[in-house]
Amino acid sequence: MPRAQPAVDVTVVGGGIAGSALAGKLAAHGLDVLVLEKSLLFRDRVRGETLMPWGVAEARRLGLEETLLRAGGSYAGAMVACGDGVSYAQAGDTGIDLSTAIPGIPGPLNVGHPDASTALLEHAAASGAHLVREAQNIRVHPGEPGAVTYEAAGERHQVRSRMIVGADGRHSTTRRQAGISLTTSTPRTYCAGLLLGGLPWPTGENAAATEGDAHYLAFPRRSGLVRTYVFWAAARGNQLRGPDAVQRYLGLLKELPLPAGCDPLSAIPKGPCAVLPMNDSWIGTGVNIPGLVLIGDAAGWSDPLIGQGLSIALRDARSVAEALTADRNWPPDIFHPYHAERSERMRRLRISAHIATELRCTFSDEGRRRRRSWNRTAQRDVRLSGPLLGNLAGPETVPAEAFDASNIGRIIAFGHR
Ligand SMILES: Cc1cc2nc3c(=O)[nH]c(=O)nc-3n(C[C@H](O)[C@H](O)[C@H](O)COP(=O)(O)OP(=O)(O)OC[C@H]3O[C@@H](n4cnc5c(N)ncnc54)[C@H](O)[C@@H]3O)c2cc1C
Fold it and tell me: Does residue 125 share a domain with residue 268?
């Protein structure tokens, strides 16, 4: 028999970015919140480490910006976009100012994913959430009220819970147990990521470049560490399979335009090198299970090429927190506004990821033509720049026409002769 625990208002399964942000907010509003996190310590899983300006705005609204800065976070006020024959030094002179995307937000915030997760979970606990780490074999039984059973420290527990939140990431067991199906798109690219030390990378400057048949992104932190990712065409599959993945990754990076003095072959790897297919996923519209809601990656993710997942997680946390604290009666359609807003937000981001892939990760003459023409014209036409600008300021800030099929067609056609 599981040991019965006192009932709680909300059980959050997964104490990562989304779950901890939500738990902290709810606990601060006086709700009884239990967080079940399966890991004992957060480790580097090669996840998101730059929070876009609209995500910083969400963090600020949740009261978490300082927490992320104290966790080692620092702002990148500029983006150096080089490649296609333009060196880092040449492009650096005309770096893109990221501090103007949202007035009052200094730019994207770069922070280690394990550091951010740890800090947000500690913040949730300090706000009054009950925390169980190394929670195993969680079973969710949504209902009115629902219940959750789990194992911790060798004992099985049962807790009645008015609301269950699935915040357990991409491979969400909450989603699976609730019978919610996930649709995934075909991978557009593959991406490998590695955290590097020992490089004199300029802090405060994120970087992106497409050269030859690879694209890279780099997010330096004030500690001197740089999170790097390299992308290549999906048709090539996992080209780093094997024991020398780190060396081959560094070899790929060396072929790309980097800041002066940054030789990847002399860098110090500071974490694992993981390779992942880049795609989007989503759950059906109209999913409404009384007593249960999914947030963050568990509810479907955005292609990491466009770096939106952390911002999405914080927006989800804020939306669900606002719903649960506005009216303690929790009517059956309580999450209708959240689901509707999220569905449109993710639709726009899927289009944005498609366009970003066509622009940055199409390694052909057509791709190079598209990049050149788009770079020349996009600044003058918000419909052309909009799908990517929305990644900085938030997808809802862009005119809806920017996501129309005809506009997408216009952007793709830039590559045609
Ligand atoms: C290669 C790559 C690069 C990325 N780059 C960026 C980027 O630059 N910017 C950006 O914004 N986003 C990026 N993302 C996306 C971002 O990392 C995620 O969208 C974000 O971490 C989602 O937060 P989450 O809280 O939903 O999930 P997670 O951060 O994965 O947290 C889920 C938590 O649930 C816990 N958990 C899992 N299963 C269980 C269980 N059964 N029981 C209890 N606990 C469980 C996990 O231990 C974890 O702590 C990237 C993703 C990838 C893969």
Answer: no
Determine which residue's CA is closest to atom 26 belonging to ligand 1.
Answer: 296
Of 350, 7, 13, nearest to 175 by C-alpha is: 13
Q: Digits of tens for pLDDT over the chain (417 positions)?
A: 888 888 999 999 999 999 999 999 999 999 999 999 999 999 999 999 999 999 999 999 999 999 999 999 999 999 999 999 999 999 977 788 999 999 999 999 999 999 999 999 999 999 999 999 999 999 999 998 899 999 999 999 999 999 999 999 999 999 999 999 999 999 999 999 999 999 999 989 999 999 999 999 999 999 999 999 999 999 999 999 999 999 999 999 999 999 999 999 999 999 999 999 999 999 987 788 999 999 999 999 999 999 999 999 999 999 999 999 998 899 999 999 999 999 999 999 999 999 999 999 999 999 999 999 998 898 888 889 989 999 999 999 999 999 999 999 999 998 887
Mark whether 85 and 163 lie in a shared domain.
no
C-alpha 347 to ligand 1 mean position (Å): 20
Q: Work out how many domains the chain is built from and give that number.
A: 3
How far apart are the CA of 17 and the centre of ligand 1, in A?
A: 7
Domain for residue 336, yes or no? no
Owning domain of residue 357: 345-413
| In-domain check, residue 70 | no
The residues near 302 (Cβ < 8 Å, ≥ 6 apart) are: 280, 308, 309, 312, 346, 349, 350, 353
- Asked if 228 and 272 sit in the same domain, the reply is yes
322 and 197 both lie in a single domain: no
Residue nearest to atom 15 of ligand 1 (CA): 309
CA of 173 to the centre of ligand 1 (A): 14
Separation between Cα atoms, residue 403 and residue 57, nearest integer Å: 23
- 387 φψ region: left (φ > 0), alpha (ψ -120 to 50), beta (else): alpha
Domain CATH number, residue 246: 3.30.9.10
User: What's the gap in Å between 69 CA and the centre of ligand 1?
Assistant: 19
Task: Assess whether the C-beta atom of 168 lies below 6 angstroms from ligand 1.
Answer: yes
Dist. CA 22 → ligand 1 center (Å):
14
User: Which segments within 171-328 are labelled E, that is strand?
Assistant: 182-184, 189-197, 205-211, 214-220, 226-233, 268-269, 274-278, 281-283, 292-294
- Quick one: 60 and 158 in the same domain? yes
- Any domain includes 339: no
User: In whole angstroms, what is the distance from residue 328 CA to residue 31 CA?
Assistant: 10
Do 116 and 58 lie in a common domain?
A: yes
Does the CB atom of residue 108 touch ligand 1 within 6 A?
Answer: no
